[in-house]
């Protein structure tokens, strides 16, 4: 029989995402509601290895639900990828009598959690915190909605200049391996084309074709959204390729970059973070271990960590189609 859970720890790891604070708050307060002692680990797996762990009471997480970033700080730990690093991390948890872990982050965080959970007898629950939305077992990750809203605001502003100067703007958004942010931003801003890592066949040629036709139709300006991880290159490389094919086009590039990762979380991110943080604590108390929490059809669900990581999450084919159709 599993050990009774009395003390849990929560941490954030990998890239920060708006809503992580709301998730931490939910873990701490749901834990306190169930009379658990809750600990916060600073700087993700790095802090775990170094025993950088502190007790968190409900009042310690006041006034953070609306804040971007993560007050527990975050890191991408190389040391945790080594057996020695994980052994040190486990020793630190034992030293604090911690019985279970809630890890908030993306694929790297989940991979670390999965390996750790296989090596050591400690229940782990992953909470999806990444702007990329590239985690299986959930329709939403914490931070994605905020990032898309920020990207959308930026593109709306760029549209003013594109229109005023009759230019084509290539706007690069984040998404190293996935096009969720790019596709949603493209649909939300009415962009002409979107280039994403998941759908590459003929995509560059179709973009060039679209821009040639637009010029013939005397379309004054165009917005092309580029996911940073698409194989043709970043917005700058793509602008060069397209400009070579269409020398008459006046092209400009904008890279939104880390602007997308900061800022106050949207309503959606605050609510899903609160639901998932609370759900993670209740899941642990109900015997869930080495799983990731998610939201599917607006219901909290649990998926084995290995499935959340190993399966590729497809972008919506319907969204791809409508992005093209509506850009006529
Ligand atoms: O995984 C989230 C993410 O924002 C990616 O979209 C991006 O490629 C990456 O992190 C950037 O990471 P860093 O801030 O470490 O450069």
Summarize the structure.
With 328 residues, the chain is an alpha/beta fold. The protein has helices at residues 20-33, 44-49, 83-95, 107-119, 144-165, 180-189, 203-216, 235-245, 267-285, 305-310, 317-325, and strands spanning 7-12, 37-41, 53-56, 100-105, 124-128, 168-173, 193-195, 222-227, 251-255, 291-296, 299-304.
Order of helices and strands: EHEHEHEHEHEHEHEHEHEEHH
CATH hierarchy, class of the largest domain: Alpha Beta
Adjacency order of strands in the biggest sheet: 3-2-1-4-5-10-11
The number of helical segments is 11
Largest sheet: 7 strands, mixed
Q: Which percent range describes the beta-strand content?
A: 15-25%
Low-confidence stretches: none
CATH topology descriptor of the largest domain: Rossmann fold
Number of strands: 11
Average of pLDDT: 97
CATH architecture of the largest domain: 3-Layer(aba) Sandwich
Described by the principal axes of the CA atoms, the overall outline is elongated
- Distance between termini? 61 Å
